[in-house]
Amino acid sequence: MISRGYGGATKERINIVSDGKEIFLNADYVGDEPRMLAETLPGVPVLTGIVRKLPAAEAVKMGADMLLLDDGFQHMAIRRDLDIVLFNTDKLAGNSRVFPGGDLREPINALKRCHIFVLTGTDEQNQERAENFKAVLKKKFPDKPVFFSRNRPAGLILQKTGGEKIPVQPQELADQQCFAFCGIARPEGFSQTLKKLNIEPTALRALPDHFAYTAKTVRRLIAEARQAGATCFLCTEKDLVKLRNIDLKLPLYGVVMEARPDKELNHLILQHKSF
């Protein structure tokens, strides 16, 4: 797995987050997402670097026979066998304008380079919206398959100071007063997930994506939680990896999410002719 490592402090050209057996680097150094990937994908080496072809070459030296670039559609320095473009179903293409006028990194026509589209986060509420956008994509790119992927909470974990993680059931929080917080791109998605788990937090603090938790921020969260009468903290798995060695004075739980794509997508990837 090759990542840019957004939010990490390192400027090193090659960072081995994990060799698939042992995790070497923390989230504050290499970014929250690479660290989370290293923890959730045992057996898979995870490397980062600003110039992704360098960690990619290092991964090959380590024995990799397949590379997966995280957020790599615009990274032309590495030839790809398969390009998969994801659209968040609630956001889709936004206003179809390129950043900074919109959310797109390239014009819509650049999508002709990709092989597969996936609409992520589909559910009963936005299924019609997803179907309509699928029709738009199929009209503009008739030769490219479009799949749906559903996000579902797979459970909760209690993280001890030091990083030990203990699986727990959502009902164990039934009598708790949870102070929820998250540093992700779509905090409303976290709020919706808590509703699916029947968890109603006493408060929900939304922080910027890839947020770095400083001592000052931690003190503020503790103070706000106490003021709200909270008995525990609740955050995303992405936030959890940045809080391994921080004592929040209250129990800290994290929500584990699972992506459930259409089965045909997995089959198509495995059968792709370039492999």
UniProtKB/TrEMBL annotation:
One of the GO biological process terms: lipopolysaccharide core region biosynthetic process
Pathway terms, separated by semicolons: Glycolipid biosynthesis; lipid IV(A) biosynthesis; lipid IV(A) from (3R)-3-hydroxytetradecanoyl-[acyl-carrier-protein] and UDP-N-acetyl-alpha-D-glucosamine: step 6/6
GO cellular component, one term: plasma membrane
Keywords associated with the record: ATP-binding, Kinase, Lipid A biosynthesis, Lipid biosynthesis, Lipid metabolism, Nucleotide-binding, Transferase
Molecular function in Gene Ontology: ATP binding; lipid-A 4'-kinase activity
Listed EC numbers: 2.7.1.130
Keyword set includes Kinase: yes
Keyword Transferase found: yes
Taxonomic superkingdom: Bacteria
Enzyme class, UniProt record, top EC level: transferase
Physiological role: Transfers the gamma-phosphate of ATP to the 4'-position of a tetraacyldisaccharide 1-phosphate intermediate (termed DS-1-P) to form tetraacyldisaccharide 1,4'-bis-phosphate (lipid IVA).
Protein name: Tetraacyldisaccharide 4'-kinase
Organism: Candidatus Electrothrix marina
